[in-house]
Amino acid sequence: MNQRPALIWDFDGTLAYQEGKWSGAMLAAMDELAPGHGLTLKDVRPLMSSGFPWDKPEKLHPELTDPQAWWAFLEAYLMRVALTLGFNEDQARRIARQVHHVQADCRSYHLFPDTQATLDRLKSEGYRMIILSNHVPELPQIVRDLGLTDAFEAVLGSAQTAVEKPHPRAFALALETLGNPAAAVMIGDNPIADGQGALQAGLQPLLVHSSDKSALFWHCGQLCEIPALLASHSFSTER
Prior knowledge:
- The chain is 41% helix and 12% strand.
- By secondary structure, it is of the alpha/beta class.
- It is elongated, with a radius of gyration of 19 Å.
C-alpha cells in the first residue's frame, strides 16, 4: 500500500534565505557600530566557520535549551570573533548583541518566491509537514511572522531540542512529533545536515537550492518542482 510521506523541512536556505547569513549579520553590525573599520566579508567568514552549537552536532546541548543561555553562549562566541578582528571589548560586546537582534528578527529572512505557493499546494494535497532546523531560539516566532505557521504541525529548532542535525536524535524527534509515519522525506539544502543525516536516519533526502549532485539524494532546483517529484514516486507504508 502506498501513502503520502510526511515532509520534514529545513528552514534557512530551504524555505527562506538571509543575505550573508551570520557573517553578513556580523559585518552589518560592525558597519553600524564601528563605521570605517575597513573589514570585509573575506575577513569575517574564516572566523565564523566554527563555534556554533551545530558545528559539533555529535554533542547534545541540554544546557542551551533556555533562550538566555543559548544567546549567552552565542554572544560570547561572537565577541571572541570581534576581538580577533581588532575591536575593543566594549565594541565587541555591542557588536555581538547587535548580531543577536538581527538574527532573531524575522525581517532578516526572505521567503523564496515559490515558498508560500508550494506549501499551500502540498498542504492542500494532504501532506503532513513540520520544520526541523538548526537555528536560533526565536525560530517558531520567525516562522509565525513570515506567515508560514498554518502549513506546519510543529517547528522544531535545535535551540529548543538541544540536538542539531545531522545527529540521529534530531530526526527521531521529528518522526516522533509526526507520530512515527511510515514514510518521510527530509527537504533541505545542506548535503550533510539534511542529506547524509536523513539517509542515516532512514529518511529520503530531497535537496533544493543546492549544487550537490549526489545520486543518493533527490534534487529540485526550485521548491515549486517538489509536488511533481513527490507525485512521481511511490512510498511504502513500511519504513
